[in-house]
Amino acid sequence: MTAESPTQTVQRMLTLLTEAGPAEAAALFADSVSFSIPHPPGIPWVPEVGSADGMRAFFELLGTHVRGKEFELRQIVAEGDDVILLGRMVSEVKKTGREIDTAFALHTTVQNGRITRYHLYEDTYAVAKAYFGD
Length: 134
What we know:
5 strands
């Protein structure tokens, strides 16, 4: 059996997030994870993360506060261990009922079959507006 490519591992993470759950998706992460999501202060679903357990906590917090509505993966750019996903997502902040409609770039790195980097870039103004209001 051939080992998964980094792209296949990242795509499996996305599938597990929607079909299985946070624990199953987090199991694909390494013991040490470089995590970054620039965000406005006070956003409750972006904790400090540095491990697979931290990724599970992040995915659980995200599900507690945000409901995914649309996810469009437009492009995957892969080179070596790095996989970059480009697309658009629409989510609803459960507390306010407001939508976050944003393009995104997710930079991941997969080493030895485990995800070691999860850096998400999105429209932080749209996030702040949906959570805090005008």
